[in-house]
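Review form for a predicted model. The reviewer records the input and the model, then writes brief findings.
Reviewer: anonymous (R2)
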Amino acid sequence: MVFGLSLFSACVQYKAINIQTLTPAELSVTSDFVQPLIVTGIYQGVAGSPESMAQAALDSTAALETGLALAESLAESPWFKGVEVPVKQHYRDESTNRILPFTWEYVERLASETNADLVISLEYIKIIPTTDSYSYWDNYYEAYYGYLSMDVFAYWRVYDLYNRKLVSDYMFRDTLFWDKYDYFPVKVGDQLPGFFNSAAYCGYLVGDEYAKKIAPYWTDEQRFYYIGGSTLMQKAADFAVQNQWIDAATQWEEVIKKYPNRLELAAKAAFNLALANEMLGNFDIAIGWLVESDKYHKLQRTSAYKDILERRIKQLDRL
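Model under review:
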């Protein structure tokens, strides 16, 4: 879907459009799967230890939200289009300080209910909250400041059951921070989010960010094309608004043929032809039209647009 916004100035008339481009995954994870499964590790805690049980509740809240967020985000990726990704929980082993990989027998047992051939496993997540508050004088009034921070640690592994291969592991680390000034004492669960709400948000962030690490995702970007200078340019713009890029390109080519001596106008038409070819997936041809545009007249946007197209060409090998 393409959205447009016309922008006018004394010298330039052009239209901005919003498009979506496919960004490749950062981590190398196989796309050769039939049924994926998300597994999240939750922690039972030590009975009789309030501190352990509270920590287990925070970690488990985050883990559950992580699995749901990952499934939701993966559903938007072309790799997972039309594939339902179930989420399964298991109790993680806290008897060792090392995060050991699952045995293949255990992976197969986890995958058996859904016949999964790819297991995406959140094997560890730890949420460490820190909070404090204090009062101070704001002129003649007593005021308060408080904050809540959450250190987040998560460890992922991806198991390829078909090839019995561990294809990826990844450690996520981040710190989320909330603070507030008020004329009443600042408390968690009042002016600041509660511990469990903030833990759930941490889990959402972990799942959403990891989806972008292992699967291609859509990115919102903006493009521009010129619409002024002749009736042919306006006619082409009308086609472009309707996403009819071949018809628009025909009009822009006519502009170059009809007005070869109007160098700036020809440069704008060539620039627009680059956009038309990008929209049609012809990235090399698009760069060629930018080179032609420069031969007519140096436009301000040409160099930056050429960089964008070169980046997209490099990304094709990773999709």
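Findings: The chain has two domains: 3-20+224-316, 36-128+151-175+191-215.
Further findings: The first strand starts at residue 3 and ends at 8.
Recommendation: see findings above.
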